[in-house]
Design a protein that fits this description.
Elements: E1 6-8, H1 9-16, H2 20-29, E2 35-36, E3 42-45, H3 46-56, H4 64-82, H5 93-115, H6 121-140, H7 145-164, H8 166-170, H9 174-198
Antiparallel strand pairs: 1-3, 2-3
């Protein structure tokens, strides 16, 4: 019997040439088999990933959500590099990890909201929960509401910039891009309201 070789989410996504958020979404929807460790980490059978890649004929650049997520993360990392992290991030490693997790959830949620055929209130409820979690984390790290919103607006700007770049990178029709911009803006405004609610 051949022993399975397990891949992390990051390695499996790299093998499929998609963003980890996309693979996480596929796994959560049951489109691809996943093993979740007791610690909550996803593991993928390398043979199944290879087979999935063959059968799906993935065209990374044709998927608007993947292009957007890739641009959003790249642009955010670039801006963070050019700006002192102390301006908008706590120094505690545990808090930084919580922020990264919230950011990943938000990008994944934005991808779902962009792809939804109709308005999905459940996704907006989740966006507000992310905002409330960020507000709670900000308060725990002694950030004022102004500081918390300044950080949130920084990420808001990066995600909107990524949406504005879509026509060049993914050949998105103007009507589609307008819809994406409206949805991203609505989703992120909901996050800001969730943050503010925790300071009331």
């Amino acid at each position: 019997m051949i022993e399975k070789r397990w891949l992390s989410l990051k390695d499996a996504a790299a093998q499929l040439a998609v963003h980890p958020t996309t693979l996480r979404r596929w796994a959560d929807s049951g489109a691809i088999a996943v093993l979740v460790t007791p610690g909550g980490h996803r593991r993928f059978d390398s043979a199944e990933i290879a087979q999935f890649a063959k059968t799906q004929h993935i065209r990374r650049r044709d998927n608007v959500q993947d292009v957007w997520a890739e641009n959003a993360l790249l642009q955010t990392r670039r801006q963070i590099t050019n700006r002192p992290p102390a301006d908008f991030m706590p120094t505690d490693d545990g808090a930084k990890q919580q922020l990264r997790t919230l950011g990943q959830r938000l990008v994944g949620l934005a991808m779902q909201y962009m792809a939804a055929e109709s308005e999905t209130e459940g996704l907006l409820v989740e966006a507000e929960e992310i905002g409330r979690s960020y507000g709670t984390l900000s308060q725990a790290n002694a950030l004022s509401l102004t500081e918390a919103l300044r950080a949130s607006l920084f990420f808001h700007q990066q995600l909107l910039e990524s949406s504005l770049e879509l026509p060049e990178n993914a050949r998105v029709m103007p009507a589609t891009n307008r819809r994406i911009l409206r949805r991203i803006n609505r989703l992120l405004n909901t996050v800001h309201l969730g943050i503010a609610a925790m300071y009331e």
